[in-house]
Amino acid sequence: MNPIIRFRQGVPATATWRTACCAVLSVATLAWPSVSLSQPVGLPNMGAASAAELSPRLERQLGDAIMMQGRRDPTYIHDLDLTQYLNEMGQKLVRHASGQAPDISLFGVRDPSINAFAMPGGYIGIHSGLFTSVESESELAGVTAHEIGHVAQRHIARGLTQQAQNSSIMMASMAAALLAALAGSVDLAQGVAVFGQAAAIDRQLGFSRDAEREADRAGFDMLRKAGYDPAGMAQMFQRLMNSSRLNEGMGGGAYASTHPLSIQRMSDIQNRMSQMTPSSHVSSDDFWYLRAKLRVLQALDAQSRRLVMQQLQQEGQSLSGTRQHAAWFGLAVEALRRKQADEAEGWLSKLAEARQDTSYAAGLRIELAQLRGQNEQAVALARAAVQRWPQRQALQLALAEALYATQHFQELERLVAAQDPGLLEQEPRFRQLQALAQDAQGNLSASRRTMAEFYIMTGAYPAAVSQLHQARAVTDDFYVQSQIDARIRQVQELMDSEKRLREQFG
Questions:
Q1: What does the alpha-carbon distance between residue 456 and residue 450 come to, in Å, rounded to a whole number?
Q2: Cα separation of 70 and 64, whole Å?
Q3: Rg (CA), the chain
Q4: 291, 132 in Cβ contact below 8 A?
Q5: 3-state secondary structure 486-503
Q6: Helical axes 444-457 vs 461-473, angle rounded to 10°
Q7: Which pLDDT value is given to residue 159?
Q8: Phi-psi domain of 76 (left: phi exceeds 0; alpha: psi -120 through 50; beta: other)
Q9: CA distances to 115, 260, 434, 493 from 424, in Å
Q10: Which one, of 198, 178, 175, 116, lies nearest residue 151 by Cα?
Q11: CA 343 to CA 323: how far, in whole Å?
């Protein structure tokens, strides 16, 4: 009997998604038709949406196809604390979008460059370098709101299907970048980004700035109505302009390559702010804790890690309040990363003495117990943490991991069954653990069906079909076999749909 096909989470089948996504978006941002620069007061006139545009359904399929590859890339940050925080911020903003609120999904990318990008289908990536460079939660929310503005105004779909003079060049470049994302050719993805920009930048940059102003204004309104300080957007853009010398095209940078900054855009935001009563927003503890964690996670080489440790140690000594506690937390993260259990315990003890018993510290205590081989202690800590912070998704996953390590398989299955379907889709690891637990208990058909769902979530359709065939072979239950047959047909339809997607844009 064939065993369950194993999948090591975090190890990609390809390492191309972020490059290819940036290629798609770099091309898309520049692919705008020409319009008059004479604008009425309000949003820039980018024209009405046409029937020839990419449909929302097809746009979502494009985004889903890229994200299925993206979640298997090492630069994708598999951290539910971060993902939950970003999406809660995004939902807070999108509730105040004009018109119909778009469907969005935010995620983190381990990359020290200051960047953020919107993908087809409402997916928004936030670079760790952007998060760690901001000085307030309102600045981060300002960039996030801007990206949501692109989604809400359907800039990507409108750019991908524009009928301007360079349409054939842009559509070919977009298609090549998309296929690179799906097929796994890094060189191809990098090439189309260069050639696509070179072919269109002179003719389309002016309208690209109109698109940016439209996203600015839509984002500014969301930012203000959501309770963040609108000055955060202006402060962040000013920081980007100063650091990259982007005043009117001087210099460049990751964010500016697809989001051209200008004095006109800054003036527009400042003029809108001048007509408002000044407001303030206190950055949350979550913001400071996750900012410290990302500073550690994005430091991959020895020199960067030493520098981050020195900075956090200095902040832990010189700062006070939440920022000091966040520095201690970051040092505990780094100690666990180096598997220095005693050092990590020392920093966690300082947090406990300061009465900073947060869900983030609780997660590290669970990890510390596992590092020391105290698996039952880890289960006890995780159960207590979930009971205290039931809405924290990362703690739910930590409990699942601890239950699997201690062979509490039935409790693990109950835990997974109780999770929100959206969380299970977002974090396939739950399904993988459930399948392994079922396999360990000898429930072979169920384990293979569950593992098939894991593979479907990660876009590994052939592996999913293989698991379903194995599941069918180990059961004599006609009803179960019929269900499996139906699911095999559904997966094959997904495979056919992806094939048609490639053909349509190939």
A1: 10
A2: 9
A3: 24
A4: yes
A5: HHHHHHHHHHHHHHHHHH
A6: 170
A7: 64
A8: beta
A9: 28, 37, 11, 22
A10: 116
A11: 20
Asked whether the beta carbons of 277 and 283 are under 8 A apart, the reply is no
In the chain, the amino acid numbered 130 is L
Domain ranges of the chain: 17-274, 419-506
Q: What is the CB neighbour count within 10 angstroms for residue 249? A: 12
Q: Do the beta carbons of residue 341 and residue 323 sit within 8 Å?
A: no
Task: In whole angstroms, give the CA distance from residue 180 to residue 66.
Answer: 10
Structure tokens at 72: 């298997």
Instruction: Find the mean pLDDT for residues 288-295.
Output: 98
For residues 207 and 24, give the distance between their C-alpha atoms in angstroms, rounded to a whole number.
Answer: 18
What token pair was written down for 181? 């994302």
CA angle 317, 322, 325 (to 5 degrees): 50
One-letter amino acid for residue 294 of the chain: L
- Read off the amino acid at residue 223: L
Q: Which residues pair with 106 in a beta bridge?
A: 124
Distance CA 441, CA 376 (A): 20
C-alpha to C-alpha distance for 501 and 493, rounded to whole angstroms: 12
In what order do the strands lie in the sheet containing 116-118? Answer: 105-109, 123-127, 116-118
- Token couple for 473: 């072979």
pTM for the full model?
A: 0.83
1-15 pLDDT, tens per residue? Answer: 455 544 434 333 333
pLDDT tens per residue, range 341-366: 999 999 999 999 999 999 999 999 99
The span from the CA of 66 to the CA of 189, in Å, is: 13
CA angle 271, 275, 278 (to 5 degrees): 105
Structure confidence by residue, pLDDT tens digits, 50-78: 334 567 777 788 778 778 777 877 888 99
3-state SS track over 182-236 = HHCCHHHHHHHHHHHHHHHHHHHHHHHHHHHHHHHHHHHHHHHHCCCCCHHHHHH
pLDDT tens-digit map of 464-502: 999 999 999 999 999 999 999 999 999 999 988 878 776
> The tokens of 314 are what?
């200095």
> Does residue 335 contact residue 365 with C-beta atoms inside 8 Å?
no
CA separation for the pair 330, 336 (Å, rounded): 10
In this prediction, residue 506 carries a pLDDT of 53
